[in-house]
Amino acid sequence: MKDSLLEKNLAALPSRLAEVIQNTVNSIGTTDSNSQNIETKISYELIKSKTGDPTLELDGVWIHSRFDPKKEAERFATELPHDGSERIYLLFGAGLGYILPFLIEKEKVTIIWMEPFPFFVQEAFKIFDFSKPLLDGKLILISGEGMEDQLSEAVKGKGTYPISFVPHRGSWQWKETEYQRLKYTAEQMFHKKDVNLATLTRFEKIWAKNICYNLPELSQFHPVSDLFGIANGISIVVAGAGPSLSESVPDLIKYRNQFLLLAVDTALPILSSFGVEPDLIFSVDPQALNSQYLEDYSGDAILIFDPTSTYLSLRLEKGPNKGFVTSSPFPLIRLLERTGLSEIGSVPFGGSVSTNAASLATLMGAKSVFLVGQDLSFTKGLAHSKGAVLEERLNYLESRKFRREKHNYKQLFALPQKKVIGNLDETYITNEKMLIFKKWFEDHAKENPWTNLTKFGAKLEGIPHSDFAKEFASDVSEVKNQTNSVNSIRNQIRSLLKKEKSFFDQKQLVSEIKSTTEALSEFVATVKRGLAVSQRIYNQIQRNQINPKTFSEDIKQMDAIDEQVSGKKGLNEILSLGIQRIILTITEGYDDHLSLEEKENTQLGVAKKSLLLYEGLYTSVRSTKRMLTKSLYRLL
User: pTM of the prediction?
Assistant: First the structure.
């Protein structure tokens, strides 16, 4: 009976997860913060409780009641919030699963069971039949590697559901550290998701605008893939704009000939003010302010440019105007990609320009990549390194009632403050946003040759901390050898920009933009009809004045229009960048567009989402066509 139940439950799981559970034999597999699998052999035996139900004792801790584990679970289940609306219970452990049947019987509830010790799941599967809720998606199991990714997938489409964290008391008493880590993983994932969604919806229109307006200038650039592997055998220093950057300047000057310097655009004014000349400048930020980091720059540094970065940067009278372009996950970039001789090349994105720059340094094949100005904290109470453009702009804003100190104070408290440990066990103040970047560096530490030379700030776990004197040569002959190698690579990079043949075909780009704008002109008529019909359907439902005949005809017409629109896959991908908030409303449940009436009335809510989609598509078609037409004029 036990084996048949186990097999039935395993059959309801995805094959990868079933394999994790099935291969658990008297062992516990834990995952540490660096994703290293640790397996510890243990022996255990289920014990009958007073009621006859199996229970378990591990290391002197009773995982469930030794008297009545079912009653214990039922009592705890009744204490959990349940108001009849959609809700998620996120379980950090469930032992032998006694609480699950009591949660499953509740309506409109999704149960997500995170379990770092698969042997618990195997034993629970021998006691209970969870196959139906597992197949229906009411019960979701998360175990094995990549728990954060599994959790992210599990909550997709449930963005507005309230979530109750449910720690299993017996499991926590036995291995509190492991289950506390699950809770931390969940908190990080939800915060990262919120930040990413906020960024996506905040910048959706700016990204689309920048890509469209950047196309003429980017057609003169070279692909970043030309740089991949070019720095073999030399060191690259990646300069961020953290508060301690200015303190690293003496070392940057002293050892400057022994490395390529890749600076983020926000660090450029600081480095320039000290006479430190970077070789490469990475620009990613879409906001217009970022162009001010590059204006008036008259050095020889080469620009690495993300297509979504502000188009103003490429139209400055002074500033770097030649360089390499990266690819982008947004479909609009395909207009440019299709005109290239080969792939443009992608650089991993971690949410900030510093993460991109560090990834590029690795892709360039450097034997060592050193990080400076990567504080990820408010070092010495500063939000920015002294000399940053944002700080200099305050020269023009200061008044009796507004001082730069006040602005710095506001920056420090813009998000809830957190504490982080430094390399010498000192404590720094940071915030949740910087902790996301910190975790990104730590998660990618294994596959990257990074060393942190930042003077102060947060400790990056898994990334060794050092200083310039230890990492760079002082012997004259060795310095000369390194200098020669760096100069050779520097010259190779510059020679790439002197190629006579352009990588991108401008005539083909003109053709691509023309055909796209023509297709958009045809598409707008279909979208406009869809908007009108969806409005009629919505009005009938809202007023409760449904005429069966006309309503049926509208629904048929809407189905036909939906089919026409969904058939324009390429155009929809291009237009989707400008309507991410609406897409999330429909797919992820982020229904801030819906009124209380629309949330309570299912039919009205569905009609509103259809209306929102066509409103968004109509706006996006018109704006995208307008922006591409402007770029077309600049290319002709």
Answer: 0.71
